[in-house]
Design goal:
Elements (H helix, E strand, L loop, with lengths): L1 E3 L14 E3 L7 H26 L3 E6 L2 E6 L2 H21 L6 E6 L1 H5 L4 H6 L27 H4 L19 H12 L8 E5 L5 H15 L5 E5 H13 L3 H9 L3 E5 L8 H16 L3 E6 L11 H7 L3 E5 L4 H15 L5 H10 L4 H17 L7 H7 L1 H6 L6 H12 L3 H5 L5 H17 L4 H7 L5 H15 L3 H14 L2
Parallel strand pairs: 4-5, 6-9, 6-10, 7-8, 8-9
Antiparallel strand pairs: 1-5, 2-3, 3-4
Helix pairs in contact: 1-2, 6-7, 8-9, 12-13, 12-14, 17-19, 17-22, 19-21, 20-21
């Protein structure tokens, strides 16, 4: 894979042979340049990103106006090219050796050889194993993962998803605080930590951030972070090859087990059985368990009750739908990261209009940046946003239904739909039910009898009473008022 710059190499720069290998008795200009490039990468992206992604790069040779770097797998090559390729090209061009491009090749033999002299100059005090390239996650490069090495099983961590880049607001502050506490605690504060929320609200970001912080604070700690699909795949493979003992030993020997999107275990009874016993073994031995899902444990479909009970026995933290203030903060942070000046009117417009999730919000900003930079530096404005994002804005302008309201209220208050529609009068159920009635009256055109039928066949007078009750309470209950504002903003598209 070849990465190229926009300009041409300077013909007056120092001459580089047409095909020169890396090495020699003393560091040459190429070797010293490589030391400087690596130092820049470490400084710009941080030790964690460098260690996990960029350290695997090995300088092989110079070929014409290109520098040839090697990694050990296709996955590693594609990831580095996609996320760091442009910066690699820029840094090598800045060395003024006549290079105008970087080629990254898969060369397992050469990439696994001891580091050349230039690395020794850069980091003379680092341990030997620190200089070796990290293996690419086997589950991502097409190979079968092998039991025994945690790194071969783990989902690769995204260097962009850290606590430093996580924008905190009222809807996610508790989940952030809980994750940060687990990541920085010397002793296990609570077990398990269960994070849940809808699509694009930051669950995966917090999981990656927690894994990063755990590994940075204690590199010797065995942190296993993987998706539910990978866990199931490995378990099925272990059963197929009658190697369940190795599977159990692998997963029960880690210090921290993190599983993303556990809702996919629904109806997978054998996998649930194994997770249940793995969970118990880890907790009994004071090992940390961190789980994420799209729903709270009690509402997970197809999950056995005993497993639900275990998953909900620690701290359950929800990432709520975003409010206006959080969306605005995310947009401003995104603009700062990109170094692009965006008028406040545009960010406010997007924060009001795109309410579905953070992922769509960030995607909207990326599209605006692309149009502004690729089309003759076009100025970002509300008119431009409406033109470029018309499909996204139209999707976020859909009609609100009573079903939408009921679902969102259940998620917000962490109650079951069956309870919302039931005759139960406990305040923990009755108040959310009245909130849902109120929102149905405010955000839909349905009549009171129609709303009553959607709420378990209730009489229209019951709906009227619920609406009036919420209207009375809003003035004197700031917490209730905030709940309604959050729900309204998340529902109005």
């Amino acid at each position: 894979m070849t990465l190229t710059g926009n300009g041409n190499g300077n013909g007056n720069n120092r001459d580089v042979s047409n095909e020169r290998s890396f090495g020699g008795e003393r560091p040459n200009a190429l070797e010293l340049a490589w030391v400087r490039v690596r130092a820049h990468l470490r400084s710009e992206y941080g030790d964690a990103a460098f260690k996990n992604w960029l350290r695997s790069l090995t300088l092989l040779r110079a070929s014409g106006d290109k520098v040839v770097l090697a990694v050990t797998s296709k996955f590693w090559r594609d990831w580095i090219a996609a996320h760091y390729g442009d910066r690699l090209v820029a840094l090598w061009k800045a060395e003024n050796l006549g290079f105008n491009g970087v080629e990254i090749v898969v060369n397992a033999v050469e990439a696994k050889e001891p580091r050349p002299r230039g690395d020794a100059l850069e980091m003379p005090q680092r341990e030997t194993d620190e200089a070796r390239p990290q293996p690419a996650p086997a589950t991502m490069n097409g190979e079968e993962p092998r039991l025994g090495d945690v790194q071969n099983l783990c989902t690769p961590l995204d260097p962009r998803l850290t606590f430093e880049t996580f924008v905190i607001g009222k809807p996610n502050e508790f989940a952030h605080a809980a994750a940060l506490r687990v990541a920085e605690a010397d002793e296990i504060p609570f077990n398990p930590l269960f994070l849940y929320g809808g699509v694009g609200l930051g669950k995966t970001h917090l999981m990656h951030a927690t894994a990063w912080r755990l590994r940075m604070r204690n590199p010797a700690r065995r942190v296993m972070f993987l998706s539910s699909e990978t866990f199931m795949h490995l378990f099925v493979k272990a059963v197929r090859y009658k190697d369940t003992h190795a599977f159990k030993e692998q997963f029960r020997s880690v210090d921290v087990l993190m599983i993303d999107d556990v809702q996919f275990f629904g109806e997978k009874s054998a996998t649930q059985e194994e997770l249940f016993h793995t969970f118990n073994a880890l907790v009994d031995h004071r090992r940390q368990v961190i789980i994420s899902a799209d729903k709270p444990p009690v509402d997970l479909q197809g999950i056995e009750e005993r497993l639900k009970s275990r998953l909900g026995s620690g701290v359950v933290a929800q990432l709520n739908p975003t409010n206006y203030e959080l969306r605005l903060s995310i947009l401003q942070a995104k603009a700062e990261q990109k170094g692009v000046a965006i008028p406040s009117k545009v960010t406010e417009f997007l924060a009001h209009k795109i309410t579905s999730n953070i992922r769509e919000l960030e995607g909207a900003m990326t599209r605006l940046f692309a149009h502004a930079t690729l089309l003759n530096s076009r100025e970002i404005s509300i008119d431009m946003a409406q033109e470029v994002l018309q499909d996204l804005l139209r999707a976020n302008d859909r009609h609100v239904t009573i079903d939408d309201i009921q679902k969102r209220v259940c998620e917000h208050y962490n109650i079951k739909m069956a309870d919302l529609l039931s005759p139960r009068r406990a305040r923990a159920v009755a108040r959310p039910r009245q909130v849902a009635m109120y929102l149905a009256k405010q955000l839909t055109t349905r009549s009171l009898p129609e709303i009553g039928r959607k709420f378990g066949g209730r009489d229209h007078t019951t709906i009227m009473h619920g609406v009036r009750k919420i209207e009375e309470l809003r003035g004197g209950d700031p917490s209730l008022n905030e709940d309604i504002e959050i729900l309204t903003r998340s529902l109005t598209r």
